[in-house]
Amino acid sequence: MTFNWDLVWSSFGPIIGGAVTGTIPLTLASFALGLALALLVALLRLSPNRALSGVARFYVSVIRGTPLLVQLFVIFYGLPSLGVKLDPWPSAIIAFSLNVGGYAAEVIRAAILSVPKGQWEAGHTIGMSRPQTLVRIILPQAARVSVPPLSNTFISLVKDTSLASLILVTELFRNAQQIAAFSQEFMILYLESALVYWVICLVLSTGQSALERRLDRYVAH
Amino acid sequence: MSPTEPSNASQGNSGLVLSARDLAKAFGSNVVLRGIDIDVRRGQVVALIGPSGSGKTTVLRSLNGLEVPDAGTVTFGDADAGTVRGSGAGLTLDFAGTVGKREVAALRDRSAMVFQHYNLFPHMTVLKNIIEGPLQVQKRPRAEVVAEAERLLARVGLADKRDAYPFELSGGQQQRVGIVRALALKPQLLLFDEPTSALDPELVGEVLGVIKELADEGWTMVIVTHELAFARQVADEVIFMDGGVVVERGPASEVLREPRQERTKQFVKRLQHDV
After folding, report:
1. Which residues does B contribute to its contact with A (CB < 8 Å)?
2. Which among A154, B70, B116, B240 could disulfide-bond with B194, CB atoms 3.0 to 4.6 Å apart, if both were Cys?
3. How far apart, in whole angstroms, are the C-alpha atoms of residue A167 and residue A25?
């Protein structure tokens, strides 16, 4: 077997292009929406209202208890039979956001609970309402605790977006698949795409370390 | 007189700042308060003493709504000119009825609390800890609030710690910041919940010294404490609690030197033996 270096170099363009126009924006959009959803779900879970916390618990259970690929297919291929037809991109963003929302909700809930009760009390005694205490006192401290596990969620999401290739979203892995099918060089193309995912995750890990250092500036070392 | 010192300091001990009646509270089947009365006058220092589990901390927390009693009333008198917190007319909460969030907030707005474990905000510098309430809640001008915070920090000997984070401070320094944070709110009443119990013995003195100065300046205070010698020095009235009731109350000199009740005698004797 002769190694096809020309193909290696010529295919990097479309693969990285797929990362830049597909994988990365899909990840960022889904993670941002997912985090907002997760905060809401975490707060519902912590609510003394049983109906609200029950709804949140059910949501988390369904998301964590079913495969992401199935969730993606239900939204893209399933919903049209109910008259809801979504394009690949919106379908993918909805599925990934819902998924992040379920996992990150548990992380955020645990992080909020990890802040000592005395911090709530101190917030109240300086006159703050519950929402004010949550935003100014509790969440900044919870953020520090939740960065490592949320980074895991984030990095998993980067890789999970490859599943979007199965609902026709043009992203990194779909481009690699198409070139592979055309050139029949499966090993080269799939290793290349693996490398690009890995590099993205390395960059994210570095970012995670920097963020942790920043958030750790107020704790003893 | 500087703005943080209560304007009532020179007015004698006439008016009632706070009056609590028949406070009752149970946690499940555990009854912790069985009808407590407390009056606090302007400029008065009241020390709550008693064995652990006697309910003294619950009383203190009830006075600013951190605990909501099952029954009883808490009344605050008209505020003084110098206070920002709870400015305006008097306020009565009757806990036998339903007490809403807004009422608890109004009650809380009268006083400021110093906690046993300081409860400083670890993600904020010393200065930010102090100005957070005045700035975010009381909406006072930033320049004024910062100047005030710096003055108060200097007073407790921590001017150079302005930009430090709480973890960089000793327990005694953290508690002095906790006291400044309470003072910065300009409350009618200062509440101290065992302010030295979490401190190493050699750090207790610096915190008690600050509290004593505040007492001398005329601040109105309720202090839960195990430091009997300190209570004798600063308190105008000592209330000895046990089992959710007030066993004995009176001037510090009487309750701590010549207690009448057997339970008080034993408690005072035991604590003095420990020293």
Report:
1. 64-66, 85, 105, 108-109, 112-113, 115, 117, 119-124, 132-133, 136-138, 165-167, 181-182, 185
2. B116
3. 16
